Amino acid sequence: MAVDFGDHASGFRHTEVIRFVNDEVLMNGGGPDFYAALRSRPWDEVEERLRTVLADPQVPRATKRACAWSALALSVRVGARQREQQERQARRLQSQVEERETAAWALASELQRLRGERESAVAQLRSTQAALRQTLVECDALRGRLLQVERASRVVPLARERVPGPPRPQVMVPLGASRDHSQEEGPKRPQGMAPLVASRSSSHEEDPERPQ
């Protein structure tokens, strides 16, 4: 018997097919040796072993037919093994695709969040730039006022030094003020009036007929 009925890795799904292959191997004088020796080998080695048997003229034709049926069963087994490997690889690739999709969704979400932060940062930057420009304008205005105040503070002391003081009042000196202090303390009389004695003497001289 070449193929075991309970071997699920054989690739055969129907017992009638397995029975027919086994009967053909046994009817041609074969046994399980060829199948058992190559059951886990790749198809290249199976085909190379079959070619060696078929090329040997000392091997009976029936044995060659038995080896051919065993090689046929091994090809089904190799195909099943390759199909299983492909299915595992497909499942692994599908898992990787799902992981990549999950990572892509995560990256898309992160990108959306970063884009939102970028827009917020751009808006904040623009607001900061506007505030900076306003601050610079105010700074320039304050600097101009400071320069005006400094110039005014330098001009005012100079103006105070150049402004003359109030004029001194002129003292009017009356006639006869140059006399000495003793005459100033005497009785004052109106300006232009002659002394009384002098006036009397002059009156006597003007009237000689008046008795003495």
From TrEMBL:
Stretches the record annotates as Disordered: 160-212
Among Pfam families, the record links this protein to: TEX13, TX13_rpt
Q: Where is the Testis-expressed protein 13 A-D N-terminal domain?
A: 5-150
On the tree of life, the source organism's domain of life is Eukaryota
Q: Which residues form a coiled coil?
A: 83-131
Q: What does UniProt give as the signal peptide span?
A: none
Basic and acidic residues bias located where? Answer: 178-188, 202-212
Q: Which GO terms describe its molecular function?
A: mRNA binding
Record key words, sorted:
Coiled coil
Its family remark reads: Belongs to the TEX13 family.
What is the protein name for this chain? Testis-expressed protein 13 A-D N-terminal domain-containing protein
Q: What is the lineage of its organism?
A: Eukaryota, Metazoa, Chordata, Craniata, Vertebrata
